[in-house]
Cytochrome P450
Amino acid sequence: MALMLIILLVLLVYSLFFLRSAYSYWQKRGVYTFRPTPPFGNAIDLVLQKEAIGVNIQKFYQRCRKERIPFAGYYLLTKAIFVPIDVELIKRICTTDFDHFTDHIGHVDEKNDPLSTYLFNLKGDRWRTVRSLMSPSFSHGNVKRCCETVLKYAEQLKVLFGGMVGNLEGVNVKEACERYTTDVLISFTYGIEAGFLVDANSVFKKYVELVFGAGWKQSLRLMLNIIFPEMYSLLKLKVFDDDLARFFTDLVFQRGGGKIDDTRRDVLHNLTHAGSKNDLSMSEIVGQCFGLFLAGTETTSTVIAFTLFALASDEDAQEKARSEVVKALGKHQAITYEVLKGLDYTDNCISEAMRTFPLAPINTRICSKAYNVPNSSVTLEKGTNVFIPLQGVYMDPQYFPDPERYNPERFAEDNTENDTSVFSPFGLGKRQCIGKHIESFCTKVKTTFHRLPTRNTANQGGHCCAINQFQVYSPSGFSVAN
Ligand code: HEM
């Protein structure tokens, strides 16, 4: 009993010393910080899952703006994280001073967890090599070629919505969009047809749920991957289930048994050929293909759903977007790559949806080389984690007056009241999103196809959603999420 008490006492004293030392990190370096709450740091509501990471960091950003400080130190549990607040500093970190911040946070373990080798996670020279091998698949020509495929799946989605005519339970737009982006991404990456749009019970249903399901286990894994990536390698943990690894490995080896279209230059085809010349291992190829599915499916379907939702709530914007599409169709008869590129107002509607519902509410970097923070005496150590508070910037009235309001006019070329130069939904610099053109394309195609439920019909107790000639009534609302 006495021994037990001594052990407990030692543990308590050790914990107190540990917390004291951890929470003096920023103070010792002369970086402004707010009093942390042990053991949660500045992230109590985030850790207890009361608020999302974007909201938590947005609140931190707003406190810093009030104090007029250009950067601050944040504690996620006991992990010290640097948060640049000044937008010029953010731009420097991502662009001119990129050499000091080449990597994203996230563990890579090729042997034990092949899915972890996707581009987003790769570091230093390995990232540079793989990014250059991936880039040709995202060239202007390849994206343009992909247009036909996107249009084919968009037509299937139209049919799917058509089948929902008269559905009084409501239409889950997000789920339908997810089936659309899954089909597009699987075709673009593996050159096969997932068939998820035509078959709701396709095998992809299970794997989409496994990857993007918001269960506590997956949330915990993703959070630990940010806070203690070293732990994953040390304890041989995996961010994703074995079942997922098997499925995505099989897709590469057998192309899932689907139809192969060898006339298309899909990513897998490009990487397999590049791999033999550049020592890209099979695990890395599996990781890259999985990474595109991970990075592109959920993000794009959510942007589409949010854009449709925003337009459904703003009749004026919807009418303006539709007349732009109708005018373009009058001139060109069909939706093509060139027509889509010319839809400026539609673009503004999508950008404004991404600003008001940011898909990437924060971005991350690791300080890969000691960095003297400009106009200060602070030096960041190699290995320091950085959170870039994108949602905080987008909701800052200095850059976007009345920031809560959905207003596509902010992005009009002649609008000087808003500073859209601080808007970077796809990141900035050499590490910015490789798939942004594919995304913009899928989203635009979808946005052009619909007349949406409107506020007026919602007020009458039901949503009226006319998709071309069809009418869908959904009294329980326009569902953008599960
Ligand atoms: C609305 C949709 C999307 C959003 C908002 C988005 C956003 C982002 C952001 C913020 C980053 C980090 C950039 C940085 O660190 O500066 C990123 C990276 C990345 N994205 Fe996207 N993305 C989207 C769609 C896609 C699609 C469709 C693909 C693939 C087809 C894709 C593939 C990637 C990859 C591979 C990276 C890692 C790039 C690297 O580290 O070199 N994303 N994305």
